[in-house]
Design brief:
Shape: globular
Number of strands: 20
Largest sheet: 7 strands, mixed
Keywords: Glycolysis, Kinase, Magnesium, Metal-binding, Secreted, Signal, Transferase
Strand content: 15-25%
Number of helices: 11
Structural class: alpha/beta
GO molecular function, one term: ADP-specific glucokinase activity
Catalytic activity: D-glucose + ADP = D-glucose 6-phosphate + AMP + H(+)
Strand order of the largest sheet: 8-9-10-11-12-18-17
Function: Catalyzes the phosphorylation of D-glucose to D-glucose 6-phosphate using ADP as the phosphate donor. GDP and CDP can replace ADP, but with reduced efficiency.
Subcellular location: Secreted
């Protein structure tokens, strides 16, 4: 909260968690929303009337009732009780003890065992044959932090096996989330990244990822204010160069959609994706409308806080860019990888920050054109 950084943690004490959840849930002003990254991404897709969504995950009665009619849940995914995630939202300038939040954000905690064990993964893969998707989105790997090391290791291998059972040619997007376990993060990088096509993450996850897998700028302990564009793009470049698709490596990873409060970057390996400009702009647009809960961007309620000038890299490949308001999406290239940068019109007094990353990723995927030579 002191840094205004988004975070999520596993709450290990079951009884205490359920007491808190019950009190919170029965509170007269309690608000129940669709939760879980996959469900939120599914909801965003389902808002398009011509899209059908298959959602596999532990779905209780309340969640089922909140889901869009275009979201189908296989019977095996239904359970008798809902899992709750508790969201603590705060506005910019709010104080708690000695701390004062520099900007609005949220802290999430849960005691969610079924998602943590990735219980529904096999049900999901077995449902795909009948559903015949054009895109698969996975999330929840961060929930495994509540599991024992042995179970994490075993389950991660099963996750990779399950992903490899998804028919060839269907792009697979993995949405990352807040983590603290470096070993688990490193295993995800080395085992899961090569099996997926696309990644979605924010600045906390990106920095933790490079620290866990000894990537560039891994000595940076935390971002100081707005994450430096050159540093971010160096890390994105490294992920795609070291763990992405190339002639000598069996990896499917060709796309990363990075989002932070004031700007987004879409990095893609050349030859696999198109329409990146529209995709990254759509993600920025939804960030401004959803946080303010408006249909379109309301200029009086948003502010432009992106850097007006930045370096694209700290290696010899770097160049200096000055933002042009008439063409706000900036494109640059580095060794067969394209970068599309967009500023974000940031909502000044957000109604809700939770699920923003999911909406950004969903919107970016919706506008992304995948080339069919997978």
């Amino acid at each position: 909260m002191g840094k205004g950084a988004a975070a999520e943690r596993f709450f290990s004490d079951k009884e205490t968690f359920h007491d808190i959840a019950q009190v919170a849930s029965e509170f007269p002003e309690a608000q129940h929303y669709v939760g879980g990254n996959a469900a939120l991404i599914g909801q965003k897709f389902a808002a398009n009337a011509d899209l059908k969504v298959l959602l596999c995950g532990p779905v209780g009665p309340k969640l089922h009732e909140l889901l869009d009619d275009n979201v189908f849940v296989p019977p095996e995914s239904l359970q008798e009780v809902d899992e709750f995630h508790l969201i603590l939202e705060y506005q910019a300038g709010e104080e708690w003890g000695q701390l004062k939040a520099p900007h609005a954000n949220r802290f999430i905690f849960s005691h969610d065992l079924s998602n943590g064990a990735m219980n529904m993964l096999e049900v999901f893969v077995s449902s795909l044959e009948e559903f015949q998707p054009d895109l698969v989105v996975l999330s929840g790997l961060h929930m495994m932090e509540g599991q024992s090391k042995e179970l994490q290791r075993k389950r991660l291998l099963e996750v990779v096996t399950a992903i490899s059972d998804i028919p060839t040619g269907i792009p697979v997007h993995l949405e990352l989330a807040s983590m603290t376990n470096r070993e688990l993060m490193s295993s995800i990088v080395h085992q899961v990244f090569p099996a997926v096509t696309s990644l979605g993450l924010n600045e906390q996850e990106l920095l933790f990822l490079t620290q866990s897998a000894s990537g560039p700028h891994s000595s940076v302990s935390s971002w100081n204010g707005v994450p430096d564009v050159g540093m971010v793009s160096d890390i994105l470049f490294w992920i795609l160069k070291e763990h992405g698709r190339s002639k000598g490596r069996a990896s499917d990873l060709t796309r990363i959609h990075f989002h932070t409060l004031v700007y987004h970057i879409l990095a893609t390996v050349d030859g696999y994706w198109a329409n990146q400009l529209a995709a990254v702009a759509a993600g920025a647009r939804v960030a401004g409308t959803q946080a303010c809960a408006t249909e379109t961007i309301d200029a009086s309620r948003v502010s432009l806080r992106a850097p007006q000038m930045f370096m694209t890299s700290y290696s010899e490949a770097g160049s200096r860019i000055v933002l042009n308001p008439n063409e706000p999406v900036v494109e640059w290239h580095r060794e067969g990888i394209s970068f599309h940068f967009t500023p974000v019109l940031v909502c000044k007094d957000p109604i809700r920050t939770v699920g923003l990353g999911d909406a950004i990723s969903a919107e970016g995927l919706f506008y992304s054109e995948v080339h069919p030579h997978y």
